[in-house]
Amino acid sequence: MSDSFYELDDEKSLIPEKTEKRGELLIDYKKVDIERAERQVLKGIDFRLHAGEFCYLVGKVGSGKSSLMKTMYADVPIKNAEAAIVLDENVAGIKRKKIPYLRRQIGIVFQDFQLLQDRSVAANLRFVLRATGWKNKAEIEERIEEVLKDVGMENKSYKMPHELSGGEQQRIVIARALLNRPKLILADEPTGNLDPETGYQIVKLLHSLTQSGHAVVMATHNLQLVDDFPARKVTCIDKTLQE
């Protein structure tokens, strides 16, 4: 992960207290157009997501799943939109200096983990907390302990990433995504590099997060997982979203 992903422009701390109540509208997209390299990826799409909701994004490779998710944390620009609101921010016209604050409220689970290989699990999590404004050492260590317990990895804090299995690394990535108590969690093919049994455990864990009010959007091509863990399903097809 890039050091600048969570970087702040000033010393201001942004430590959320808890997730918002279930049912709050977190994403409101109306007639959104997305382009990549001057190629139309999605056109005129509508999409809404509320707190406590789990939503699968499915579709063929290149259908726009990842591009759509990346617009939600301002990593891919939106070409045109009637509305493109994520966590009360207009991501279609968001200013550069506001992007780190938006990302602070979003937990991102990458397929390829993106853990810092030269430091322990605890040090990986400590790095993110310090980068996002946490300063009190006791609070930092308490939060690390909390998220590792949430994902069943409380005894792995001293391990280096290469000492963990793929499933264990993905659990650490989810713990990292939870650090700042995000309202929204985006998981882009989180089981893509895992064996089926481990993938099932990760999807079950992601589903459980909605019980505490987190909203989860998970992009996947594994339709068996979608069948085994039913939830709302949105399909990217022919540059549109179908539900």
Explain this structure to me?
With 243 residues, the chain is of the alpha/beta class. 30% of the residues lie in helices and 24% in strands. It is built from 7 helices and 10 strands. The strands form 2 sheets. Strands 6-7-8-3-9-10 form a 6-stranded mixed sheet, sandwiched between helices. Strands 2-1-4-5 form a 4-stranded antiparallel sheet, covered by helices on one side. Helix 6 links the parallel strand 7 and strand 8. The two termini are 33 Å apart. Residues 9-22 have low confidence and may be disordered.
Which key features would you list for this structure?
single chain, 243 residues, four-stranded antiparallel β-sheet
Distance between the termini: 33 Å
The percentage helix is 25-40%
Number of strands: 10
Number of helical stretches of at least 4 residues: 7
Return Rg in Å.
17 Å
Main sheet: strand order: 6-7-8-3-9-10
